[in-house]
Amino acid sequence: MRHEHIEVNSGLMIALVLAVISIGGLVEIVPLYFINDTVEKVDGVRPYTPLELRGRDIYVREGCFLCHSQMIRPFRDEWLRYGHYSLAAESKYDHPFQWGSKRTGPDLARVGNKFSNQWHVQHLVKPTSVVPESIMPNYPWLLDTELDYTDVADRMKALRYTGVPYSLTQAEYEKNVKDFGKVVADQLDISQAKDNLMKQARTFNYDGLPDRVTEMEALVAYLQVLGTMVDFSKYDEGYFANFR
Ligand code: HEC
């Protein structure tokens, strides 16, 4: 009876609907204000270097997330296949995060150091040349296209506004030295971005082309760092050790 009263009385109905929706809204929104306390700090997690960051942008541009997730769930079958489950801290500098929701291909959260640079280059140019049954598309243009990094400093500045600790001022730089050590702090210094990008590309030559910095270079640099920042051998003495 009372229900009928609500249904025929649109003013009351609207008021009650709004009340219910706002409770749902609060439940979703309020925890976001405490996100800094919820995400535990983990040693080793750092923002991407300029080269890795450009690689991530290419990963997003090419839509790799449509087929690849980057989140290992805490289930036994997942650890056995991919390694330690993903920690919240491992994607805290990802804006937007790349957890994904579909796995046409395998999860990539810990693909770093799993294959050689050369394997990645060959695989991305033509996946079936290394995995004959692969249905992954070819990305040959990545190796032909010079990497545009003219705006890398601006990209870092934009992320700085979202809370990623890339440094613009001396004080921010010094805080990074304290938090991450000098080597990483230099990589996070926006004023050195282009030099750092070139230096990393020259030193590691991810694309196998010593004289060129291609989009492939950046993408492989990014893939090779995924899941490698945390040294899990320092943790999990008990249960996980059985699965290593
Ligand atoms: C249409 C779906 C699809 C898209 C889009 C796609 N992949 Fe894949 N990927 C796959 C499949 C399927 C496999 C497994 C077979 C293989 O290794 O090629 C795979 C495998 C991989 C592997 C090897 C992982 C492992 O642990 O064996 C890497 C690395 C990878 N993809 C990177 C990428 C990147 C980078 C992009 C974007 C440039 C991308 N993929 C886009 C489907 C896709």
Write structural notes for this entry.
It is a single chain. This protein has 244 residues and is mostly helical. It folds into two domains: 2-37; 40-243, Cytochrome Bc1 Complex, Chain D, domain 2 (Orthogonal Bundle). The chain is 46% helix and 0% strand. It contains twelve helices and no strands. The model has no long low-confidence stretch (mean pLDDT 93). Heme C binds next to helix 12. Heme C (HEC) is lined by residues 59, 62-64, 66-68, 104-106, 108, 111, 114, 127, 131, 134-137, 139, 219, 223.
What's the CATH class label of the largest domain?
A: Mainly Alpha
Measured distance between first and last alpha carbons: 63 Å
Q: Name the shape in a single word.
A: globular
The CATH architecture classification of the largest domain is Orthogonal Bundle
Bound molecules: heme C
Uncertain segments are none
Number of helices: 12
Count of extended strands = 0
Number of domains: 2
CATH superfamily of the largest domain: Cytochrome c-like domain
SSE string, helix = H, strand = E? HHHHHHHHHHHH
Which helices and strands appear, and what pairs or packs with what?
Blueprint: H1 2-7, H2 10-29, H3 35-38, H4 50-61, H5 76-82, H6 117-125, H7 141-144, H8 152-161, H9 170-180, H10 182-187, H11 193-204, H12 215-225
Helix pairs in contact: 4-12, 6-12
This protein binds heme C.
Features:
Cytochrome Bc1 Complex, Chain D, domain 2; 46% helix; 12 helices; single chain; binds heme C; 2 domains; mainly alpha; 244 residues
In short:
With 244 residues, this protein is mostly helical. 46% of the residues lie in helices and 0% in strands.
